[in-house]
Amino acid sequence: MADCRFFPFLILMLLIFQTLLTAHATSTFLKSLKLKSNGKKLRILVPDFSTFPNLVQLTIDPKTNESGVSGFCWDVFNAAFNALDYGVGIEIIPYPYKDGRSYNDLIDKVSLKEYDAAIGDITITANRSIYVDFTLPFTDLGTGTIVRDAKKSIWIFLDPLSADLWITSACFFLFLGFVIWFIEHRTNDEFQGSACQQIGTTVCFAFSTLVYAHREKLQSNLSRFVVTVWVFVVLVLTSSYTATLSSLLTIQQIGMKEIEVGLQGASPLRGAVFKNLNFKIEELYTHEAYSKALINGNVDAIIDEILYVKTILAMYPGSHFSLIATASTTNGFGFVFQKGSPMAGEMSTQIAKMREDGTLKALEDKWLKRESAMMSKDFSSPSPKILNLYGFRGLFLISSVSMALALSVSMVSCIVRGNFHVKVKMQLWRCILQRDVEVHVHDRDMESSV
């Protein structure tokens, strides 16, 4: 009997709960009905400083001065809005770019009820959701990393060194051979012979130092000194070459330190992705800047919203860009409405239906599919980060000084040795001439006495 006392209480609670649900549904219905019946146009704020015109682009009719919108974001909004059949018009309000303006300023305008909604490539964030209501995201969630495809060439083994470094190294090899030949050929049988034999031996000796395989024995300490210094230079050069070639043949990992990353200016990703990472960030403000930065090697990778990355891949299909990684670190793009607006929920429902029936996919293919558009002709070929002569100027300076010093000492020695031989020969000739004179005088004296 005691349990029966709780039945009226339970019935009362159920009635209260049903009343609250009915009141909420009625309130939502009345708000929607008011929106449909008051005949007032929706004031939609649209930014005119979007980085990617494929997503949202604001146009002004020069004849009527009326604003128009095109792009993927607008088509999604228009399809969802028309499906709801509110029966009200839309007034497009341009939000022009000025110094310091950002999407946060645009959201502030909606939160202050100056405008009814905002559309564009607006990222959903927790902080923004405090002030406005977002619809469900109509794009893929997360970020993407885009890089330029690795250069595939049969001559990739030449890429680690710049052209000036290759030429300088070859010249130094030949100069080394000449210095060793000049020092050794007078006394060393291995550097003697016909002209062709001497040239062949000299060139082979010089380039065999690259793999430390020279077999000719050196007799002069000057030659040994020059070769020792040059072998050290070759060791540093070959080690650097091997390391650089290995990096060119290996897929670069984005997690490496001090990587140069391109990022859209004023992007909310700066805090969401790069807060605890040691990246050098280069801000980019146009889709042309994105492409040029990758092509010219100014950045190693670009990290941005996945839809931005898809747009780049669609706009520049011949650029050999690749999406190499994705991460669910952002919430995608959504449409912005005033806090408490019933349209946010109704538009979210319609976006969900569009995702299920394939409408969103069709619109994405329309605007973001890979087209055959050619790139601008002023885009230059990428310049890989390679070893150049400037970085090795100290080593070549040391080697050139050692070679020049050894060559100078050898030349002075030859001159001194040559002068000594000349003096000896002159003394011999003097002795011979003096002896001939004495003999001639003696013979003449003998003839006179006779």
Please summarize what this structure is.
The chain has about 450 residues and is an alpha/beta fold. It has helices at about 5-35, 70-85, 105-110, 125-130, 165-185, 195-210, 220-250, 270, 285-295, 305-315, 340-355, 360-370, 395-450, and strands at about 40-45, 55-60, 65-70, 90-95, 115-120, 130-135, 145-150, 260-265, 280-285, 300-305, 320-325, 335-340. Strands 4-1-5-12-6 form a five-stranded mixed β-sheet, sandwiched between helices. The protein has a five-stranded mixed β-sheet with strand order 9-8-10-7-11. A two-stranded antiparallel ribbon has the order 2-3.
Describe what you observe in this structure.
Helices cover 51% and strands 13% of the residues. With 450 residues, the chain is α/β, with parallel strands linked by helices. It has three domains: 23-139 and 332-369, Periplasmic binding protein-like II (D-Maltodextrin-Binding Protein, domain 2), CATH 3.40.190; 142-150 and 251-330, Periplasmic binding protein-like II (D-Maltodextrin-Binding Protein, domain 2, 3-Layer(aba) Sandwich); 156-246 and 390-433, no CATH class. A hairpin with a 6-residue loop joins strand 2 (57-60) and strand 3. Helix 5 (163-184) crosses helix 6 (195-208). The radius of gyration is 42 Å and the shape is rod-shaped. The model is unreliable at 25-33, 251-257 and 371-384 (pLDDT under 50).
